Fold each of these.
Amino acid sequence: MSRQRRKLIYLLGFMGSGKSTVGKLLATKLGWPFIDLDTVIEAGQGLSIRAIFENSGEVFFRQLERAALTETSKSEPAVIALGGGTFAQPPNVDLIRETGGITVWLDCPAEVLWARCEGMDNRPLFRNAESFRRLLMDRLPYYRLADFRVSTQGLECAGVAEQILRLGAF
Ligand code: S3P
């Protein structure tokens, strides 16, 4: 596949980092379509992410995620919000790099991530403080592989979208 830069932006980062909200704002500003990978998976199965995990387990979810990623990566232009674990699967990193799209890591302080996820029950991998911390630590080395890192510290989602636009990478 072509290594040329395409009008394709992948937002990645831990659960609660604002990928979907920032992605929508960014897509609106660019006038590009927005795609939320979790929403694509849910629509394809007619089930919530939680139900998919409960019924079929994480391995099956990762297969669905991979298939959805392959399909959505054919879109252009597009802003794609990945799931928190998508970019922590090495074959997905390769696939995304092959597309020639741009990857942006929304780097959000751990305490903010925790506060955002705590009150929600739609994240099956959000269990307790210890597993949350471990999962975050395990994923940071992958997130650091992104083309760009944007610190979300002290910013509203609109401010994060502005920062991404200022990267001037597309
Ligand atoms: C996951 C994060 C979720 C969703 C699924 C798995 C993860 O997406 O894809 O629950 O592995 O961290 P968000 O990051 O949008 O919550």
Amino acid sequence: MSTRKPLIAGNWKLNKSVPEAMELAGSLKQDLADCDRVDLLVCPPYVALHPVAELLRGTAIALGGQDLFWEDFGAFTGAISGPMLKAAGCSHVIVGHSERREIFGDSDEVVNRKLKAALAAGLTPILCVGETLEKREQKVTKEFLRKQLGADIKGLERELISRILVAYEPIWAIGTGMTATPRQAGETQRFIRDLFREHYDGGIAENLRILYGGSVKPDNARTLISEEDVDGFLIGGASLQADSFVRIARSSSL
Ligand code: PEP
């Protein structure tokens, strides 16, 4: 456990209609009203952002988008921009989630453009990185992360990089029930922090919050958060029920 305040973030993905999102957000608002030892964030689908923002106004639960496009406006059917997310009430946005990379073809170059667009819009990006099972088994996780991260943050000055968060999400652990062991998560996240030390400096590296994501559940949250370099979670499946998200948030309030 570090001195960095943990962030517990829920990625609702393609789940929850507007009424369902309102119901879940309403439960979180009530159940987490006294939970101030961790930062809290939910990332509903685009259509639910504005009503959920209204419902959560005045609470400590922040709102984030799940993705964005790099242009601010124009003829880009289906896209949503950083300024639009900001105007809808978002403070954060997820960038480079492995589902965006694998299903929608977001390359590192695209992720880099989106990261810059998010920062330009005044949003806090959560940059997701992580290796496949194949890379882990080939024992090339570190080489892979060095290359992926280097490409994703290319050209970002120190002042901008100090505003991002990173989520280490091993692809083999997302939605599979196969969680990284606390040791695997801790070691890999320490390596990611060292990469920031190399690219920037110790101050940037020490202040950077690095979340872990990949089948986080109420029963494994505590041991994972006890790792020095695990500064919170990005949670998919277990963020879809108020009860499990609340239990994870409470277990992380050490
Ligand atoms: C995610 O998609 O960011 C994620 C970590 O999902 P899950 O918690 O379901 O593995």
